[in-house]
Design goal:
The chain is mostly beta strands and 342 residues long. The strands form five sheets. Strands 14, 15, 16, 17 and 18 form a five-stranded antiparallel β-sheet that branches. A four-stranded antiparallel β-sheet has the order 1-21-20-19. It has a four-stranded antiparallel β-sheet with strand order 2-3-4-5, with no helix packed on it.
Length: 342
Amino acid sequence: MVEIKKEGVILRKTNISFENEGVLNPAIIKENGKIHLFYRAVAKGNFSTVGHCILSDPLTVEKRSDSPIIIPEYEYEKHGIEDPRIVKIDDLFYLTYTSYDGINALGSLTTSKDLKSWKNDGIIVPKISYEEFKFLSESAGLIPDKYRRYNQFQISHPDSDPIFLWDKNLIFFPRKINDKFYFLHRIRPDIQIVSIKNIEDLNSNFWQDYFSHFKDHILLSPKYDHESSYIGGGCPPIETEYGWLVIYHGAYDTVNGYVYNGCAALLNIENPEKEISRLPYPLFKPEEEWELKGEVNNVCFPTGTIVENDRLYIYYGAADERIAVASLNISKLLKELMMYAV
């Protein structure tokens, strides 16, 4: 097993109103020698914005903003901007997050050239009802009981506002592959993958065809006990000599609710739709007090990484209330993963 070090909590909630309920699930990126951390800040009533701080090293906060840097602007995100992830492709930063309007939770994109001003590209995952999803994917012989179990609660009601299938954990690969954008997204309980020439091509026709061949786009499904209920994307994929290293989350059900673990897999470099390997055990799991008790107990939810001198630092939401870091030797992790290559 890979030796992992729990470095501890690096960011906690404050008394400032925009983050007085919790700070969690951060995006992280290093640019011009500075480590930027963009985190979900939760106010009373579960209203989320994005806070920002700068780290002087992987574990030390140097500067922290006293107000959110990204706030809801549109009706579809009026209840919150949740769980950001970030990559840089060419000269543009792509920050993705979950838009929440109080009913629907859907992946959205905002871009920046300087990490200061942001251009909102809106929701880029499908706005599709459960009924339409069921109809299109059943035509391809899918929708087993697991999809019904996790998504049927989103069945539309005649007099309600539109209810769409929840589509979260939108995460871009950090470069184009064969001249295409690739990104992960998650309709429970699996992780799906998308490739597209241009972001603008993600229209209703694209998604109709996508769901008509939905089985072909399922990248990872729950496989082991520690991820038996469902899985979801975690951190942006990391390019390595062995493949794309994906740190994701896996959940399993207990009498006390779900337990969320950090997990690891490898994907093929030129064809990331192909899984090479997966750890058959959790990379790390809730063990410390800050992971076991909080707004939601028993949660390690990884969302960002940086690599410094062969050390992989994984940033994660701990019990949905605070931000912690775990670290490990990335070379040893990759060698361990290759032991389970298929």
